[in-house]
Amino acid sequence: MVQEFSESQRIVYYDTEITGCVGIGKLVDMMMLISEDHSASVGVTNEKVQSYGLGWVVTQHIVDITRLPKANEIVKITTKAENYNPFFCYRNFWVYDENGKELAKMHSVFVLMDQTKRKITRMQPELIEPFEAEYTKKIERLPLPKGPTVPDKKQEYKVRFMDIDANQHVNNVHYFDWMLDSLGADFLKTHTLKHMNIQYKQEIYYGQTAISEAQVDGVNTYHKIRVDDNPNCVAECLWTNN
Amino acid sequence: MVQEFSESQRIVYYDTEITGCVGIGKLVDMMMLISEDHSASVGVTNEKVQSYGLGWVVTQHIVDITRLPKANEIVKITTKAENYNPFFCYRNFWVYDENGKELAKMHSVFVLMDQTKRKITRMQPELIEPFEAEYTKKIERLPLPKGPTVPDKKQEYKVRFMDIDANQHVNNVHYFDWMLDSLGADFLKTHTLKHMNIQYKQEIYYGQTAISEAQVDGVNTYHKIRVDDNPNCVAECLWTNN
C-alpha cells in the first residue's frame, strides 16, 4: 500500500492574480510544500538529505487543471510517492476543493542531486524506502515538452535577490511567471490554462538574466527560458478560450 | 475597549528569502490579510465596502522589526483599528513568535477611496463603527519618509501580469522587492532590516515600468519608486550590520 499524505491550505488574496484565482506557479509551490511536509513526516527531512551531501531536485512537472481555486477557498492537497527506479522517483499530487471535487493533479519527477558534484546520483535506500513507494526497474517514458521553434514573444527578466528561496534556488513560481507573463495580458485574460508540461534542465542563479521566449499556436503555447544559448527550462501549455 | 483580532500563520519556505527568513514585503502582506479577516469578522467585507463605491487604501506603513521569522515558524499576528478621524483610520499590528515574543510591529494609515473619482472620501459610519476604534479629531503627525536626494542605485522593473492581485492592485510585496532588490546582494547579505517607513502616493498599473532609485548612507537607505517624474512610493529604511 503506497502511503498517502494530505494537508489543507487556504488560498489567500496575495497568492491570487487579476482573475481572482491562484497562479499556477503558486499552486505548484503549494504542492511542493506538501511534498516537503510528507518527507519530514516519514523522517526524510531536508537536513537528513543534506547530511548525505544530497538534495531532491524536480526535473519535470505535468499539471492538469480543472479549475484554479479562488481567494479564501480551502483546498486539500494529497500526495503519494508512487514508485521509483534507481535514478527517478515519481510523485503524484491532487488538489481538491471543499466538496472533494478534483481541481488539479500533477505528476512530478524527482532526482537526488549530489550537492558538490552537481550530478544526479542513485536513489539511497535510507532516503526512499520510508515513503513505501513501489520499486520498479522501468523508467517512465513521459512526453517531453516542445519548446518554441520560431518564438513570437520575448521578454527578459533579471533574477532578483528575493527570487531565491530558503532552498537556495530560484523559486518555482518565477519560472512560471517568466513563461506566462511573456504571453501578455491580451492572451492571459482571454484564455484559461488547462495543461502544462514543464521540464527543468539547468539552474538559474542570482544576477543572471532569464530570457523568456514563447510561441503561440492557437490554444497551444510553447516556452523556453534560457540565459545563454542552452535552455534552462522548457514548457508546453494547453489553454481553452474563455 | 478597542477590539483586537488575532490569527496564527505558518511561514512556508516559498515565502522566505536566501537568508531563510520571510521577506518584509511578504510579512506586510500577511498583516494586511489579518486586517481583511478582521474586517470581514465585524461584517465590513470587501464586498460591503465596494457596495458603497469605496475601497480601503493604505497610504503609509511604519514597520519595526526585532527578528524576521524563519521557514516553518508559526507566528501569531494581532491587529487593532486603534482610532480614526474624518479622513484617516490608524491600525496597529504585532507579530509574535511561538513563545509570545514580539518579532515585529507595524503602524498603518488607511483611507477610504472613491473607486470612480479615485479620491479620498470621508469615513462612513457604517464602515468604521463596527471596529469600535476611538474617534478623534486629531490627525497624527507621522514622520514622512525621505526619498533619495542623489540616488546611487537605479533598476527598472516592468510590471508583470502576475504582479496584480485579486484586489486589482500591484501587490504590496512588489514595491518592497523593487526597493530592496535595487540595493544588491552585497548590501542585502551584510545588513538586517530593522525599520521601514513607506508611503504610497500613486498607483502603478500593469504594463508600466517601475523605476526604483535608492541611496545608501551607512545603515540608512532612501528609496523612491516612480514611473515618470512624480514619485509613486517613497521609503526610508534603517539597517544593522550583520
TrEMBL record, chains A, B:
<dbReference type="InterPro" id="IPR029069">
    <property type="entry name" value="HotDog_dom_sf"/>
</dbReference>
<dbReference type="Pfam" id="PF20791">
    <property type="entry name" value="Acyl-ACP_TE_C"/>
</dbReference>
<comment type="similarity">
    <text>Belongs to the acyl-ACP thioesterase family.</text>
</comment>
<keyword id="KW-0443">Lipid metabolism</keyword>
<dbReference type="InterPro" id="IPR045023">
    <property type="entry name" value="FATA/B"/>
</dbReference>
<feature type="domain" description="Acyl-ACP thioesterase-like C-terminal">
    <location>
        <begin position="153"/>
        <end position="240"/>
    </location>
</feature>
<keyword id="KW-0809">Transit peptide</keyword>
<dbReference type="InterPro" id="IPR002864">
    <property type="entry name" value="Acyl-ACP_thioesterase_NHD"/>
</dbReference>
<keyword id="KW-0275">Fatty acid biosynthesis</keyword>
<dbReference type="Pfam" id="PF01643">
    <property type="entry name" value="Acyl-ACP_TE"/>
</dbReference>
<keyword id="KW-0276">Fatty acid metabolism</keyword>
<feature type="domain" description="Acyl-ACP thioesterase N-terminal hotdog">
    <location>
        <begin position="4"/>
        <end position="131"/>
    </location>
</feature>
<keyword id="KW-0378">Hydrolase</keyword>
<dbReference type="GO" id="GO:0000036">
    <property type="term" value="F:acyl carrier activity"/>
</dbReference>
<keyword id="KW-0444">Lipid biosynthesis</keyword>
<protein>
    <submittedName>
        <fullName>Acyl-ACP thioesterase</fullName>
    </submittedName>
</protein>
<dbReference type="GO" id="GO:0016297">
    <property type="term" value="F:fatty acyl-[ACP] hydrolase activity"/>
</dbReference>
<dbReference type="InterPro" id="IPR049427">
    <property type="entry name" value="Acyl-ACP_TE_C"/>
</dbReference>
